[in-house]
Amino acid sequence: xxxxxxxxxxxxxxxxxxxxxxxxxxxxxxxxxxxxxxxxxxxxxxxxxxxxxxxxxxxxxxxxxxxxxxxxxxxxxxxxxxxxxxxxxxxxxxxxxxxxxxxxxxxxxxxxxxxxxxxxxxxxxxxxxxxxxxxxxxxxxxxxxxxxxxxxxxxxxxxxxxxxxxxxxxxxxxxxxxxxxxxxxxxxxxxxxxxxxxxxxxxxxxxxxxxxxxxxxxxxxxxxxxxxxxxxxxxxxxxxxxxxxxxxxxxxxxxxxxxxxxxxxxxxxxxxxxxxxxxxxxxxxxxxxxxxxxxxxxxxxxxxxxx
Length: 307
Prior knowledge:
7 helices; elongated; seven-stranded mixed beta sheet
């Protein structure tokens, strides 16, 4: 069992958490970053990042590793693939207990737990996950070389990943529940200019079928109710994220969607506990906005500790 004290503990090693770690450690704070997975969060699942300032194009994985290395260079300690068993956030000393019994104490905590891919909730979705259904183009795109696939979603992520998947697939069909896109004009234009991409609007997948792997889907028109079976080799789902805050329900204040409520100083309902990134209440979720959140949270933590 380990019991170590820090100035700040950051929960989550995505872009928000790593940025907060960079700022705090540069301010000579003793910082620990904890993450249940690998460093980088959802960023590592992105095939190409083309809108991050300073990089014309970079893979999400490489951008994540750059951030991680920079945080460690400034003195951050990063522990990944851990499980938190208990939060004690009230009072001046915050305690985080891991499932192996290790206890970490800090004057402040930054919660940057991010989110995870949202599922569409169709029949047999769980059963075909990893057997034709994917939520990560970077991870699984090359499995569908010269195959026909479907991308579900109508936002920036769905359209951008549909374009990236044409590197592998012979044809990509986008299935979108509404009659208009929820994406930037640049993403829409790039998608429409790609000869490998087609789309079906006002529709959703209601069932996945197959034997050992996915073979077809049932698509239902939202207006007419008409159902059609489509033979397909794979389905990629990009319809947003669910905040990773289930373990925080009894610890800090969340809204009805499970997002963390913060004030203008990025402080949660508990003094000394701050939040940043995709798990907080906000309109836009981009790598750049997560980095900005991490910056703001860290600067407010520095002020809180100094006071």
